Known about the structure:
Layout: E1 8-10, H1 11-18, H2 22-31, E2 38-40, E3 50-54, H3 55-71, H4 74-96
Antiparallel strand pairs: 1-3, 2-3
Amino acid sequence: MAPMWREALPSREAAKLLGISPRTLENWRQAGKGPPHLYAGSNDSPFARGIIYPLDWLMDFLEAREAARAALKPEALAARAATRARNASRARESSTSPAPDAT
């Protein structure tokens, strides 16, 4: 029986497609909140196994994520953008401020 999907990506490439780091994708997978995945490879050796993401499933996940973002109210999006701008400003200030005097 042929698989229901035709193409699949390894974790690193799936993360790149999603615009996140491989570590974030791993964290999502462990938390059960990322895109669906499969374990591929031999069951005889744990070292031969790998995690793959069927491309169709990744595209479905991206579409659902975008739909959820679009469903957010404009006020929520504005608040999120303001928080990100505030955090970025604080990060810039802390990186440009002089180091405290060690005396």
